[in-house]
Design brief:
Distance between the termini: 36 Å
Strand content: under 5%
Structural class: mainly alpha
Largest sheet: 2 strands, antiparallel
Helix content: over 70%
Membrane topology: Multi-pass membrane protein
GO cellular component, one term: plasma membrane
Radius of gyration: 27 Å
Function: Gustatory receptor which mediates acceptance or avoidance behavior, depending on its substrates.
Protein name: Gustatory receptor
Family: Belongs to the insect chemoreceptor superfamily. Gustatory receptor (GR) family.
Order of helices and strands: HHEEHHHHHHHHHHHEEHHH
Amino acid sequence: MSRNAFEELRVQLRTLRYLGVLRFSIDFEKCLVRENAFDERIAWLYLIGIFGITCSFLSYSWYYPNHFVMGRHNSTGNCYALINIRCCSIFTLLVYIQLYVRRCRFANLLQSMLRFNQITGCGNGALKFASPYFLHLSLFAICMLNYTYGYFAAGVRVTTIPIYLLQYGFSYLILGQVVVLFACFQQILVSILRHYNQVLLENVKLGKECAGLYENLRKYNQVMWLSHVEVNYCFGLLLLPITGFILLITPSGPFYLVSTIFEGRFRQNWKFAFMSLTAVIWSLPWVVLLVFAMGICDVQKERPLGRRMSRVSRDLRLYLRLLHLMGLMCWHFDSEGCQLVATPQNERYALGYAVLILTAITVCFTFAHLQPDRFHIPIYNRTGNFYETIIFRITCLVLILLYVILYFRRHRHRRLIQHLLQLNRR
């Protein structure tokens, strides 16, 4: 990755600067990241402003919760929506506080990555960085349009809709930019590690056991320390509240679907179609952020060999024994010869177990379909009971599909695991 790759992050870093976080003066030529007194004062004013707005919003939602009621939601849906928007403001404030408190550590991280990035070479860095950035902005626009129509159709007060849009829009913008920056940093570290891996392989092939080899090893270790210590220290506690909030708000899409459409509030076909589409897209932008945050790249796969590979066989034996008891993979495991043997007794056991499980699950599914009232929980409302029966039926179908696939592909799975065991032994 060339130095221009970091220059492609200028737009994203400038966006974060306008949002009041990571306000640094970056010299891409000299690889310097500095913070002056003016930027520090602006960041402090941003933090004070966000804190004041958050306290005002929480007070308003606490004393006037009826202003946030959705006319076409039930009581459970309105309570869940109110909890979501309050948590949204609190988590956004926590992210701002962490970014302000650790701004010096972020400046050191940026400067270190700039220096390492100077000596690597790659030509497609711009495309890699532009795609997540513009994808996030596109999802931001879709999110705002979808929320506008969804809240208007759900019967929210006209004066409250701008509050919903401002809170969710601003939170999605700042949280998404932080997550996208983390993903871009991982791509930079991957390119740097690939460069050093290539250099070290060339040195080993040429037999250059000189100062250059040890210098490259030292720099490689520095990059590994940067990726596993500095990046985790800067983004670890930062991604924790972001991930927690995304997991909290992700069910709002299905909940919106249950509280509006399944309640029978929209009889017309076109309204039903629009509300279904709104519910499907409702949580999609937040799920994409979760994928960005939880994505595993080659940096996280770089690990030293800390234990003997023979332990894999012992661990695998325990898992196979557990799966054997569950009737999923009924084989005899020979640890000495790394062989998985399927005896006729094992085949009969697998067939009998599969037939028994499929019969029991089919009976449960049929009973739940014919007698749904037997599964109702007295303290639940109609929507909650309907949701519980849907989840029970889906669980039955998933279990049926799982046992059918594992039974008919058992020989293929056995060959795959046996090959892995033989490779591990070598």
